[in-house]
């Protein structure tokens, strides 16, 4: 039976909202909310790969698991690969990367992505959701994915491109990309050993390294669209929503 490890990259030095992993909602740090979502998916062990000691301390204080990684990584995938090496867990077939700033990601969507990976024997998988507002297509803070076919509940289509640009004039198959990845171990190793591409650097999208090197990324339809926390406004809005629901 296939085994999956859930890893969450995290660092304090985000450009738009420094220190966001430890900002609190319901008196719990954002990063610990993400750990809880990972555990609720019941796929396997959940571990934070942190650049900063204070994140490790806080995660452990909230009964989570975390390890310290270097401060030289270009993206989250490189960070979780170091974490995987440090953990020395050899009986894992897949690694699931959860973004540390999406505390409302649906555990059912996480499980669904993993099931699609197994069913289709895919190398890399991710999630996307339907774009319901035209403003999202124009918003460069919203990452969009273009797929080769229409995304439905029961298919796992191929990603053609990812973009932050205004895609309001694109005619079809444009979706809101959700920053979760599931990697076969072999694909993860291949990815981190590839050089950064010009396309990846220019667009600030690590997944373009895979696309530029002909590594296939498959996309499943998410049932919900989690709110990512990029700015203080995002944080305050999500804090209000989550604390109201509780």
Secondary structure: elements and pairs:
Blueprint: E1 4-10, E2 24-25, E3 28-29, H1 30-40, E4 46-50, H2 53-61, E5 65-68, H3 76-87, E6 94-97, H4 107-120, E7 124-129, H5 134-138, E8 144-147, E9 157-163, E10 174-184, H6 185-192, H7 198-203, H8 207-212, E11 217-221, H9 232-245
Folded structure, characterized:
- There is one protein chain.
- The protein is of the alpha/beta class and 246 residues long.
- Helices cover 35% and strands 23% of the residues.
- The chain is built from nine helices and eleven strands.
- The chain has a five-stranded mixed beta barrel.
- The relative contact order is 0.18.
- The mean pLDDT is 93.
Notable traits:
246 residues, alpha/beta, five-stranded mixed β-barrel, two-stranded antiparallel ribbon, 11 strands, globular
């Amino acid at each position: 039976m296939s085994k999956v490890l859930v890893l969450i990259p995290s660092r304090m030095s985000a450009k738009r909202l420094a220190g966001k992993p430890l900002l609190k909602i319901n008196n719990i740090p954002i990063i610990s909310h993400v750990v809880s979502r990972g555990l609720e998916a019941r796929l396997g062990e959940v571990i934070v790969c942190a650049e900063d000691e204070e994140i490790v301390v806080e995660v452990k204080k909230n009964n989570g698991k975390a390890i310290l990684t270097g401060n030289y990584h270009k993206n989250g995938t490189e960070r979780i690969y170091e974490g995987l090496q440090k953990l020395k867990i050899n009986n894992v077939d897949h690694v699931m990367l959860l973004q540390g700033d999406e505390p409302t990601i649906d555990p059912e969507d996480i499980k669904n992505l993993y099931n699609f990976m197994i069913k289709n024997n895919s190398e890399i998988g991710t999630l996307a959701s339907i774009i319901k507002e035209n403003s999202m297509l124009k918003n460069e803070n919203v990452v969009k994915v273009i797929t080769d076919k229409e995304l439905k509940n029961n298919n796992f289509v191929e990603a053609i491109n990812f973009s932050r640009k205004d895609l309001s004039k694109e005619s079809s198959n444009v979706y809101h990309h959700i920053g979760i990845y599931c990697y076969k171990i072999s694909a993860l190793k291949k990815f981190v050993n590839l050089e950064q591409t010009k396309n990846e650097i220019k667009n600030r999208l690590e997944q373009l390294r895979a696309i530029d090197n002909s590594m296939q990324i498959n996309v499943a339809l998410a049932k919900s669209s989690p709110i990512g926390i990029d700015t203080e406004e995002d944080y305050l809005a999500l804090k209000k929503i989550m604390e109201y629901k509780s």
